[in-house]
Amino acid sequence: MSPFVYLFWKFFCKCVCMCSSFKLLFVSSGTVEVKAPPKIVDTGGGFFLEEEEKDKIQKTVHPSEPLLEFDDVFCEDCGKQFMNSYLMLHFHLAICDNCRDAEDKHKLITKTEAKQEYLLKDCDLDKREPALKFILKKNPHNANWGDMKLYLKLQVIKRSLEIWGSEEALQEAKEARQGTREKMKQKKFDKKVKELRRAVRSSLWKKEAGIHQHEYGPEENIEEDMYKKTCTTCGHELTYEKM
Length: 243
Description:
The chain has 243 residues and is α+β, with helices and mostly antiparallel strands. The chain has 5 domains: 3-58, no CATH class; 69-100; 107-165, Nucleotide Excision Repair Protein XPA (XPA-MBD), B Chain A, CATH 3.90.530.10; 167-199; 214-243, no CATH class. The protein has 7 helices and 12 strands. It has helices spanning 3-21, 51-58, 86-91, 111-118, 122-126, 153-164, 167-209; strands at residues 24-26, 32-34, 40-42, 48-50, 73-74, 81-82, 108-110, 134-137, 148-152, 220-223, 226-230, 237-241. The longest helix has 43 residues, at 167-209. The chain starts with a helix and ends with a strand. Residues 105-156 form the XPA C-terminal domain. Keywords: DNA damage, DNA repair, DNA-binding, Metal-binding, Nucleus, Signal, Zinc, Zinc-finger.
């Protein structure tokens, strides 16, 4: 673009903006106030902005980072003050990261383990108030399977005691279920043995009901010109004469 064309375009845009910016304000006294046109600012990017619009852009406030939800929290183990931690963030447990024992005390367990080991139902974990906190993790056996729910073992044990009343009652319930499970296994085993015996008997009955083919042993001379053969299977004797 030549300098002459650029200057002409700049002057034209300025005139248009000035004409469109004049506003007549009628007040109660009957006088007329004229609002001065805003200053035109060259952005340097090939277009112009009114000064007010530029101020709006510069004054745009970006939302600040969210404040930490947990302030002035004291660790239940060491008693020290901390602002946030892994267990506080995910499980609302006031334990700092230094005191976290991920291998034992603060171990995470799967939903299946929580249900089998502590005899909990889905509703006990997710619907009974307050619902237990959990995190989602990809299944290590197959990434295409659904995400695993991992619960804090400490909170699962507490929920189990709320339902069963005591560790003794929980243990008795586990033993009762184990006995029932063993009985069911034995019942299935006996049923399979019975079916196997029935199949063997059926096979023997079909074999006995079939046509018997005699298998004779060596012939014996019993009298002059008289001979016999005995079946080695059923003992049948065949007598015949030889000329």
